[in-house]
Specification:
With about 200 residues, this protein is mostly beta strands. It is about 10% helix and about 45% strand. It has one domain.
């Protein structure tokens, strides 16, 4: 299921997270990280083809995407420098990987607390018709400030028909209280072929 671009979905509910008191309005907003929607920083590196782009987000936040050696990292901050200092800016995967062009922002009372992105992770155990690794889809949940920015949970898309709902529930339940560097990133729902290759 593809996310609608630049749409807003709002659902009023009582927070399922015991650390969050009272009823809140949980919303989903969508922005684009397609190259045409972002600002490219400098020129591609001639040696490894690496690129950096900064994309507009929500509530004064920007999305930083660094790509090199056919792997991407995605971080969020008030500006490029702030995003580059976050743990998420070092959260690369072992296999080749790339993020989708749509970012889903989960917000409580219009304040973003997590993003959800669809990633394509190379499965080196299986080859496609061209002889390259098969690409498999995974959803990654990333927490946002206040506090550090880092991955919170992964959902294997093929193993979970309701992957989008699971990712949103993980964001709502875990992201705000997640301690980067101390808490383990969670695998949500059924494990699949993308959850083991995500080791960094």
């Amino acid at each position: 299921m593809k996310y609608p671009a630049f749409a807003t979905i709002v659902v009023a509910l009582a927070s399922a997270n015991p650390g969050q008191a009272g009823a809140q309005t949980i919303s989903s907003f969508y922005t684009s990280t397609a190259p045409k929607a972002c600002r490219m920083i400098g020129k591609p590196n001639e040696e490894d083809g690496s690129t950096t782009r900064v994309c507009p987000g929500k509530s004064g936040l920007v999305v930083l995407i660094n790509e090199g050696d056919l792997r991407e990292v995605v971080s969020v901050g008030r500006n490029r420098a702030a995003a580059a200092r976050e743990p998420a800016a070092q959260a690369w995967f072992g296999p080749f990987s790339s993020s989708g062009d749509t970012v889903e922002w989960r917000a409580a009372d219009s304040k973003p607390f997590a993003i959800i992105q669809r990633w394509q992770i190379a499965d080196n155990s299986e080859q496609d018709k061209r002889g390259g690794p098969v690409s498999r889809a995974m959803l990654a949940v990333t927490r946002l400030p206040p506090g550090e920015v880092c991955h919170v949970a992964y959902v294997d898309v093929a193993a979970n028909p309701n992957a989008n709902e699971l990712a949103r529930q993980a964001a709502d339940d875990f992201a705000r209280d997640f301690k980067c560097g101390a808490d383990q990133v969670k695998t949500i729902g059924q494990s699949g072929r993308t959850t083991s290759p995500t080791k960094r």
